[in-house]
Input
Amino acid sequence: MKFDACELCGGKVLEKQVTVDLRRKNQLYVFYKVPVGVCSKCGERYYPGPVLEQLDELAQHGMPGAKKLSVPTLNYSAA
Output
């Protein structure tokens, strides 16, 4: 993938593999090794359209062999 300069700071955008947390309805999905553009200066992420479409498709229909994680949840207002 080729990315233009960062729209926020003008830094160089490099392709990296990142972890993406995606929420759909009341469900949290965690995707590892997602190829996106990341600004080397400010860290802004750039998601190519086909990658977003595939993440949404996977969240809607699942993926064979997907693992389940246990995630603690906290009520901040009760702290």
